[in-house]
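Could you join me in thinking about how sequence relates to backbone shape in a protein? Label the sequence line and the structure token line clearly, so we can match residues to local backbone shapes. Once you have written the record down, we can walk along the chain together.
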Amino acid sequence: MEETVSIEFGQSVPQQIVSLSDEEFLQAIQWKSKPSGDLMKGAQTGDLARFTKGLSARLKETAKQKKQVKHAAEMMWASLWSEETEDETCRTSDLIKLIKSVQELPGKNKKTSNSGKRKKTPELSWDEVSRLLRGWLSQVTTSEPLRPYELLLLTELLENVGARLAPETLISVWRQCLFAAASLCFNLEETDFSETPEDQVLLVSGELPWRLSFLFSEISGAKHFRQLGQQNLRECFFDRTDNDGTPHADYLPRIDFWLATLTRSLFIGQVWKKPVLDKEALERFQVSVEKLAAACDVSGKIALCPTHSVAHLNLLTLAAYFAEIPGRNAERLYLKSLSADKKKRESFMIQAEDQASSQSDWSALALMRNYWSDAANLLAVSWNGELPELSLSAMGKSLLGGSWDFSLTVDGKEITGDGEWSSVCWNSDEDADYLELQMDLESGYTLERQILLPRNQHFVFLSDIVTGTETTNLEYRSVIPVTLGIAGALDDETHEMVLKTKGLSARVFPIGLPQERDFFQPGSLTLNDQSQLVLHQQVSEANGLYAPLIIDWEPGLKRKPADWASLTVSEGGNISARDEASGHRLRIGKHQLLVYRSLKKGAQARAVLGHHTNYESVIGRFDTDGDLMPLLYVE
């Protein structure tokens, strides 16, 4: 007796379904309720004409529903946000090209422009689109089934313009999508995602089930499929963000793909009036979007994330709307200001009650921002990999970007990392944002890094501290990534360097080196061919080394004379050795900065330039009376 073949969500999908005729395929569908209307009755009886009529009517209603949601025009072809040119096969690329051609086709009753002039004839007609789609579908086989991204593209195609397709093509696309959706539903729990990028896990296990369940809502098991997608979207989102909503730094290289999936899912929820995230998840997503908005520089790019198919600014603007972040929120106002025409955009400053800066140990990510302004200073740091990553935007201009490398030799032997980076100190207040990182090195050495961005001044402080237990000869290089295209010019007589790009001039002061260049004193500051700032320092007969660097782009100071010097540090009337404590002063015009770092804990307070302290680190400016105005104290 021949086995009955059926199609429903949650059940296995027999491969023989592929060989069924369209009439037989439709008759195998299990509906969640007694068939009614042209769609279900046409399928039940194998009446292709009636089924197509019902399906077209339903897809027209779907397209109408989508257009009623605010920002529908920007979301209409949002599946293209997930386009990946490098990893796509020829087949997927062909479908993307076809979708983009469909995107350019005029809608119904839009043959002429407002001026009455006939629009340029589109490259394709709907008949040609239908023909090309049938040809493309012929490449889909049991051995080469629809890929997840192809399924998403076809789903959006059906939602938007399915009713415009020729009947034969419409049935073929709908059938392929249903077969792929039912197969995905049955196999999802057994799918191995260990080698899959996190954003793709979110798309396959969450967005597709959520979205397809609405397209096939009348079919048995669709509600379960929807709940499965909703649950996976929530769990994947929570698993990949800290309690404060900070996404893990591991996902930054593809954070726009990750955000695109969540934003599309929220949009579809509004279309069907079914919220995809519960209150707790939505509130965390709001904070995630706010943090990504704070990481967005004046050019509209998310720091530490390469731009892929969709402009970050557009994506963040839509994500903020669908996350239901209030319109008067500083992040929303900032994104709105950046969205204005660049030629017409005026300078802006947005007031906010809370600081935009944040840090997460779990996420291995810190964000330092002084203001919500088009001239803001923005520094993002991640430490999830072998080397910390930096991205610095100075007054809206990209200055640093890439891996902060180093090299250390001890008595001529190279020393490398022997552990993972960790955050050992974070402080954010009205004066500055400060981050300190640490990693264990081989042979008992430790490397610490200080990063400070002040709130009301235009400079960044970066330093490396090497400490060990044995007295040796240390040679160290700090290799800091400079944005490509920035030119560097070294002063004729000193170690000062100027970094220049259009609209920005930054002075670099290696205050751990003597100001004057001297052939007999080792140490240098250079900008190499790889656009890396290399600070080279050496010490003899020591077990510690301090390599501080200040980059200043204060407009009013760029032509002021500058000088710096290493300071004497004393403890109990005795001079401290350089591997015990290090003090430095930088003067630019009338502005003076003090930097102090203890490399070994003292028995009592130490004195540097008349300032007594028990703190491990001190960074501050002197006022006109000679009193120190601290930017940072670290115990």
